[in-house]
């Protein structure tokens, strides 16, 4: 099974939606909440070029945010994880 890692803010609706998608598919994930952690946010931005949460990695490959996860879900690629 693929390893899914989320970096989220606790109050972010897109983060909540990403977790709902994964939960609905019964895909396990690890979550790191980065509320107020400016250093971690900068590191993730430098690594990904994305400035918004959630940051979603599958098998250590950055796939994007919630909209990217929704695209994978609609194309049924999440079913292969």
Outline of this structure?
The chain is an alpha+beta fold. The protein contains 3 helices and 4 strands, in the order E-H-E-H-E-E-H.
Number of domains: 1
Query: How big is the Rg?
Result: 12 Å
| SSE succession | EHEHEEH
Pick out the low-confidence regions: none
Q: How does the helix and strand content classify structurally?
A: alpha+beta
Principal-axis shape: globular
The total count of helices amounts to: 3
Helical residues, percent: 25-40%
The amount of beta strand, in percent, is 15-25%
CATH class: Alpha Beta
**Assembly form of the protein:** single chain
CATH fold node name: Glutaredoxin
Number of strands: 4
Mean pLDDT: 96
Largest sheet: 4 strands, mixed
What is the rounded distance between the termini?
6 Å
Please give a handful of descriptors for the protein shown.
glutathione disulfide oxidoreductase activity; redox-active center; four-stranded mixed beta sheet; Glutaredoxin; alpha+beta; transport
């Amino acid at each position: 099974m693929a390893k899914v890692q989320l970096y989220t803010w606790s109050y972010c609706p897109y983060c909540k939606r990403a977790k709902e998608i994964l939960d609905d598919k019964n895909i396990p994930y690890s979550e790191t909440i980065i509320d107020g952690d400016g250093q971690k946010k900068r590191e993730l931005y430098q690594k990904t070029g994305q400035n918004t949460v959630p940051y979603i990695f599958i098998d250590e490959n950055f796939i994007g945010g919630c909209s990217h996860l929704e695209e994978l879900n609609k194309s049924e690629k999440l079913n292969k994880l």
